[in-house]
Specification:
This protein is mostly helical. Helix content is 69%, strand content 0%. This is Retrovirus-related Pol polyprotein from transposon TNT 1-94.
């Protein structure tokens, strides 16, 4: 990637005030690529005396050249109003310090908002772990972008606090102290494997319950067996015990023998 490509990021997102945090992040990317970020962290060195060693002059001139270029990047990516306010500043660090005084409070507000979103984020039961993790990772990135420094173990702890109760077994078996080097992407992949295992177990249980409900219970089977035995123990009467209708019998005799 060329320097002109990177610097175009600043040109497309000029500093207006409200976007200071994003502008500062983009500026640091450009200055780091150009190896100019040193001028934001150091004050202008004193001009060396005439009898100073040559390497001192070289170092001084290198710093001045870096400062001039960084200052140009900053001034060129500001609104006209901000340019007018900073045109008399000599060093890039002076410009940045003044901008911090003017707009630095935005970072604190955004940091607090992002941290609140992260703390209050909770996964809903049955929801996708991937979608949840991407949301949490976004909150973490936003918090860190706005100045927070969260160590790896704290990040994992905060993420586990957001998971639903379905993932309690995963949390119980995960060794935080031994796995601090795991990336958030790797953690998401392991959680997805656990999610598939949960869903597979749920399907098996549902199929088992359905199969069990379709079979007659042991009590019903016993009742049917008893009823079957009782019905088979009754002897057929072959019509001997059948109650006869006298009128029908008389009609039958009259018809059969003509009486």
């Amino acid at each position: 990637m060329s320097s002109s490509t990177l610097s175009s990021i600043l040109n497309k997102h000029n500093l207006t005030g409200e976007n200071f945090t994003d502008w500062k992040r983009n500026l640091k990317i450009v200055l780091t690529f150009e190896k100019l970020n040193v001028v934001l962290n150091t004050h202008c060195p004193p001009e060396p005396p005439i009898d100073a060693p040559n390497e001192v002059f070289v170092a001084y001139q290198r710093w001045k050249d870096s400062n001039d270029m960084a200052r140009c990047y900053m001034m060129a990516s500001m609104s006209n109003v901000l340019q007018a306010q900073h045109e008399d500043y000599i060093t890039a660090r002076q410009i940045m310090d003044n901008l911090e005084d003017m707009f630095g409070g935005q970072a604190a507000e955004k940091h607090q908002e992002a941290l609140s979103n992260l703390i209050n984020c909770r996964q809903k039961d049955g929801s996708s772990i991937k979608e949840h993790m991407l949301k949490v990772m976004g909150y973490l990135a936003e918090v860190q972008t706005n100045g927070a420094d969260i160590d790896a173990e704290s990040q994992l702890t905060m993420i586990f606090e957001t998971l639903s109760k379905e993932y309690i077994p995963f949390r119980a078996t995960f060794n935080l102290s031994a796995r601090q080097n795991i990336t958030l992407t790797e953690l998401m992949q392991e959680l997805q494997k656990f999610e598939r295992m949960i869903k597979g177990s749920t399907i098996v249980q549902a199929n088992f319950a359905e199969a069990s409900s379709s079979k007659p219970s042991s009590g019903n089977r016993k009742k049917k067996q008893i009823a079957k035995k009782e019905s088979s123990s009754v002897l057929p009467n072959n019509g001997k015990n059948k109650k006869k209708n006298p009128n029908s019998l008389s009609a039958f005799i009259a018809g059969r023998w003509g009486t």
